[in-house]
Amino acid sequence: MENEQLIGTVENISDYSDTFTMYWTDRRFIMVNTRIQTNVGLGLIPALIGEAATKLTESRKKTENAGLALDEIFAKDKKSFVVDYADIETIELHDPRSRWRSRKLKIKMLIDQEPKEYTLNEQQHEKLCGFLPCIAAFRDKLRIR
Q1: What separation in angstroms does the CA of 65 have from each of 21, 73, 103, 127?
Q2: What is the pLDDT of residues 33-87, one digit of tens each?
Q3: Which of 11, 20, 103, 139 has minimal Cβ neighbours within 10 Å of its Cβ?
Q4: Which residue ranges make up each domain of the chain?
Q5: DSSP structure string for 21-81
C-alpha cells in the first residue's frame, strides 16, 4: 500500500498448526506463513531431520523475502493473509502470571465467529505490548490482561 508505515514485526507466531511472521503497519497486519511442514516419518532421527529441514526452509524464506514489499511477501504463500484494522472487533494480549499457562494473542474479527488465537513467548508478548498501544486504530479495541 502507498505511504504505509511498518510499525512492528514479530516472528515465529504459532496458531498450533502453522508458524507466521506478523507485520504490523499503521493500517493493517499481514500474517506471512513461514513454516513448511516436512514429514519424513516417525521416530527420533526422522523428527530431527524434519526439524532441520524446516529450519533451513524458514531461513531460506527469510532471505528470499528480504527487501520485498509487504504485498509481495504476502502473495508468495497461500496460507498468508491480510487483515485491515477496520475488520477487527477486539484484540487481546493475555499474560498469565503463572508460568504454567501460556501467553496468548486473541484477535476477534467482525467476519469470524471465533477469535484467532496465537501462542506467544515472553519476548513476543513484550514486543507486542510495546507497539500495539501506539496503533491509533486500536484505541478502543485493545485489551492487555
Answers
A1: 11, 6, 28, 21
A2: 876 554 545 556 665 565 565 566 566 666 666 667 777 877 777 888 899 999 9
A3: 139
A4: 6-144
A5: EEEEESSEEEEEE--------SSHHHHHHHHHHHHHHHHHHHHHHTT--HHHHHHT-TT-E
Which residues on adjacent β-strands are paired with residue 25?
6
Grid cell in block for residue 4: 504505509
User: What fold is seen in the domain 6-144?
Assistant: PH-domain like (2.30.29)
Q: What is the pLDDT of residue 52?
A: 62
Per-residue pLDDT tens for 85-119? 999 999 999 887 666 678 889 999 988 778 888 88
Task: Measure the CA–CA gap between 72 and 68, rounded to whole angstroms.
Answer: 6
Give the Cα separation of 50 and 41 in Å (integer): 8
